[in-house]
Amino acid sequence: MSMTHHFDYTLQNAQGGTCIAQAWAKVEPPLPASEKYRIQQSIKQALAAKNAVLIAHYYVDGDIQDLAIETGGCVADSLEMARFGRDHRADNLIVAGVRFMGETAKILSPEKRIFMPDLEATCSLDLGCPAEAFSAFCDNHPDRTVVVYANTSAAVKARADWMVTSACALAIVSHLKDQGKKILWAPDRHLGRYIQDQTGADMIMWNGDCIVHNEFKGEELSMLKKLHPGAQILVHPESPESVVAHADLVGSTSALLNAVIHGDATQYIVATDKGLFHRMQQLAPSKQIIEAPTAGESATCKSCAHCPWMAMNSLNGLLHCLENQTGEILVPTSTREQAYRCIDRMLSFSRQTGAGTAHGLVPNLGAA
Question: Pick from 27, 130, 173, 277: CA 20 to 30 A from residue 36's CA?
């Protein structure tokens, strides 16, 4: 039986209006070791039998990440997940992540079947940027080039001129600025502000945020740094400006991982979803990883940075979707074809320029 966790989060529209919405995340209780082993073995057998490959995001449970690697799949950020699936010979892709990741995989691999453990696993950035409202926002600014973050639905991508990830967003926005383009950016306001600060581009923002990264607190981070003065501070650019201001490095999920693996420091304070720490500790076992504080909703919660929807991915859910072919991702052909254009434009730019190929490392020009 699963446990259901309720929480409130804020949806913000393009004009700055807000409303409080309730969401829920069905999280299964821990499995006994013997049951976990049985399910893992069943998943391995089912993957082979169904000609399927498991593709997992860095934020899902560590057992699922390990299983993806053990079975010849991958653990990666959202774009690399989709690229891996596109290039893999498997007929069926099992995506452990959130819904927009499954949709992106389907856009890049329309001939393959894409399955997810739970189709209700979504993202606050996706939820906070509904396609109809976003399309109207774009219509109100017809002179602007529409640039959307990967964390959006297929329908929103279909309305965009460019898709970007945190690894290549700076390079692409700089390129557009050099061409004299004015930009409409969606949906993460913190990432958009960071890119605007770094590039000086003319940008208007959709007013969204990630419920995980938005909770990091600059003051709390400063206090933690005093306890660990030798630690390097690594921050994802979806974090608030007060958090970014303390960073030694600002970068994508892959960039933060790369910085820990190859960095000279022995301690790292990391402001991103703590699901990434599983891979960090595997690949850099000699480094100490310290969770950046969020302060949470009470004084008893200092480090609660984990996406509730990522937590909905479970071993039981994986086995069920494999054995019963449930949770299939379907994208209407017209939407897929329109969405593909903005993704392909980004991929072509990255191939030609090398943008995003250095693990998304980004200098923090505002760091003290």
Answer: 277
Contact 310, 98 (CB under 8 A): yes
Q: Which residues contact 90 (CB under 8 A, 6 or more apart)?
A: 51, 52, 53, 112
Residues with Cβ within 8 Å of residue 89, at least 6 apart in sequence: none
Is the peptide bond prior to 187 cis by the omega test (within 30 degrees of 0)? yes
Count Cα neighbours of 252 within 13 Å in the Cβ-side half-sphere: 25
Question: Tell me, what DSSP letter sits at residue 292?
Answer: P
If we measure between CA atoms, which residue out of 268, 292, 294, 298 comes closest to residue 280?
A: 268
Looking at residue 245, what DSSP letter applies?
Answer: T
What are the pLDDT digits (tens) for 114-146?
999 999 999 999 999 999 999 999 999 999 999
Question: What are the tokens at 171?
Answer: 């390079």
Amino acid at 155: A
- Burial code (b: 16+ CB inside 10 Å, e: under 16) for 285-298 equals eebebbbbbbbeee
Count of residues making up the chain: 368
User: What pTM does this model have?
Assistant: 0.89
Q: 14 Cβ partners below 8 Å, 6+ apart?
A: 133, 134, 137, 206, 207
**55's tokens:** 């593709």
244, two tokens = 């970014």
Listed in sequence order, the DSSP H helices in the chain are 33-49, 62-70, 78-87, 99-108, 124-127, 131-139, 154-157, 169-178, 189-199, 218-227, 241-244, 253-262, 277-283, 315-324, 333-353
List, for residues 170-199, the tens digit of each pLDDT value.
999 999 999 999 999 999 999 999 999 999
